[in-house]
Amino acid sequence: MSNRWKPNVTVAAVIEKDGRFLLVEEETSHGLRLNNPAGHLDPGESLVEGCAREALEETTWHFRPTALLGVYISRFVKAANGEDVTYLRFAFAGELGERDPRLELDTGIVRTLWLTPDEIRASADRHRSPLLLRCMEDYLAGVRLPLSALYTDPSVYDPQPVAGAK
Which of 62, 92, 120, 157 is such that its CA lies 20 to 30 A from the CA of 140? Predict the structure, then answer.
C-alpha cells in the first residue's frame, strides 16, 4: 500500500490599507513569527469563504476577497522529526471591512501589526512562510486574477456517497 501525498491547502489574505499591510505575529515552535492572516482550508467551505474566515479569526477584521493573487507552493522538512511538509497557498486581495471588537484573536496569535513593505522586507528572518513576501510583492506589482477562475462544486457543501469509491 502506498502513501498518497497530500499537500496542506491554505488560504491567505493580503490586506493593504494606506500603504501598510496587516500581518499577524504568532507563536511557533521557532518563536514569534510574522505571517499574512492565513490558515488551513476547512471541510465544507470554498477557498474564498476559508480566506474570509481565517482573516476574521486571526485579526478580528472582516475581509471580503475580491481577487486571487495567485497559487503558491512551498516545502520544508521539520528539523525536530524530519517530517516533509508542503503547503499549497491560495492568496487573495480584497476589501477590508470593520474590526469586530467583541472577538478575540485566534489561539497562538499574539497581536496584529500594520507594516510597510520596507518593514516587511527588513523582517524576512521573522517570516513564518517564504510566501509572505512573495504574496506582498505580487500584490504591489498589481497581480489580480478574477475569482471566476475558481470553482466550488456543490459537493463541497453536500458530499454524496459514490458507489465503488474507496
Answer: 62
CA distances from 137 to 27, 38, 155, 156, 161 (A): 24, 17, 35, 32, 43
For residue range 49-77, what is the model confidence (pLDDT) as tens digits? 999 999 999 999 999 999 999 999 999 88
Asked if the structure places residue 158 within a domain, the reply is no
Amino acid 125: pLDDT: 96
CATH of the domain at 123: 3.90.79.10
Determine whether 112 is exposed, middle or buried from the number of CB atoms within 10 Å of its CB (0-12, 13-18, 19+).
middle
Pairing mode of beta strands 16-17, 8-14: unpaired
Q: Cell digits for 18?
A: 494606506
> What is the domain count for the chain?
1
